[in-house]
Amino acid sequence: MKLSKVYEPGQYEADIYALWEKTESFAPKNRGGKGSYSIVIPPPNANGDLHIGHGLTLALEDIAIRYHRMTGKATLFLPGADHAGFETQVVYEKHLAKEGKSRFDFSREELYGQIWDFVAQNRENYESQFRKIGASLDWSRYTFTLDQKIVDRAYETFKKLWDDDLIYRGERLVNFCTFHGTAFADIEVEYETEMGKMYYIHFPLVPVSGVTDEQKFILIATTRPETMLGDVAVAVHPDDKRFKHLVGRTVKIPLADREVPVIADPMVDPAFGTGAVKITAAHDPNDFDVARNHNLPLLSVITEEGKIGHDAPRAYHGLSVEDGRKQVVADVERLGLLKKIEDHEHRVGH
After folding, report:
1. Calculated CA dihedral for residues 223, 228, 234, 240, nearest 10 degrees
2. Top-level CATH class of 9-154?
3. Contact 199, 269 (CB under 8 A)
4. Which pTM does this prediction carry?
5. Which residues partner with 341 through β-bridges?
6. What CATH number is given for 188-349 in this structure?
7. Strands 276-279 and 233-236
8. Contact of 137 with 77, CB cutoff 8 Å
């Protein structure tokens, strides 16, 4: 028999892998009480093909699995896939966009069915890719994160956590996409350095009875003047001597007809802006923490559609954030409360 000078894996490896599966070569087996070893594969998102990172991780894990299997341990390399939820929806919507369509062209049930089929196709693709790599996975235990047994276990776990008073429901700030209409994780936010504006605005101090010669304003600096419509305090650093005499006083929020306290909190950077910052508890994570520490309310002034609304004065309802900012700046300038506007470089999340 004449042997080929070049090994052609495509001619043999599929049959070899099929034989491994048929003979359950990768199932964990008791090999004389030598212990056990297992790895749960980090389930890839079922919204595309595998990439080089998957290949590297899979190879390293398979090396460890095969080593422990050869030492006689009952060894399990557990395969699976993750539906990836919102990320998969975004990927699928990009496919729809190429066809000139959007998710709004379909009912909820139709869109869910289409994405389910999309996920199923991707699962088939990378299951084939796993096999081509030669990973010694026990396919009889393959698990998908939307398998009913997994869904049931998730519900059972959360119910137990609730019954044991280990979880609770509370108000928290989340990243929210106005286009997709959903929250997303901090890790998915990408920050870019941009040139913006810093607005310096006078907040009127509420007069104190019996005091005639007093400071009438406190000057704050902000990059988001439209959120002042939801301010619940003005904060200064406890050690900042410039403002010690104002802590405990009250200021009036321009345009909102609301009086709020001047508080001291170590979160404030005395070197930023004027050293006095407005606290918009519902729209900034640092301000949220300050509000919680000082028992201040949460006033939301931006809706899920990215419009001014909720607790904002009705005159601004329906404006986009950009238009709301322009209107707020124009209004405080009309009242003589805008001191100056400066260029300001800062990092903005997208």
Report:
1. 10
2. alpha beta
3. no
4. 0.75
5. 199
6. 3.90.740.10
7. antiparallel
8. yes
Q: What type of residue is 230?
A: G
pLDDT digits (tens, 9 = 90+) for 9-59: 888 899 999 999 999 999 998 666 788 999 999 888 888 888 899 899 999
Nearest CA to 233 out of 260, 270, 254, 205 is that of 260
* Domain residue ranges in the chain: 9-154, 188-349
Q: Nearest to residue 230, comparing CAs of 207, 253, 211?
A: 253
pLDDT 10s digits, 87-109: 888 889 999 999 999 898 999 99
Torsion of CA 274, 306, 174, 87, to 10 degrees: -130
For residue 329, which amino acid is it?
Answer: V
The total number of residues shown for the chain amounts to 350
How far apart (Å, rounded) are the C-alpha atoms in residues 134 and 109? 38
Beta strands in the chain (DSSP E): 36-40, 74-78, 80-81, 143-144, 175-177, 182-184, 191-204, 217-222, 233-236, 250-253, 258-264, 276-279, 338-349
How far is residue 106's CA from residue 99's CA, in Å, rounded to a whole number?
14
For residue 343, the Cα-to-chain-centroid distance in whole angstroms is 29
**CA-based radius of gyration for the chain:** 30
68 close to 129: Cβ distance less than 8 angstroms: no
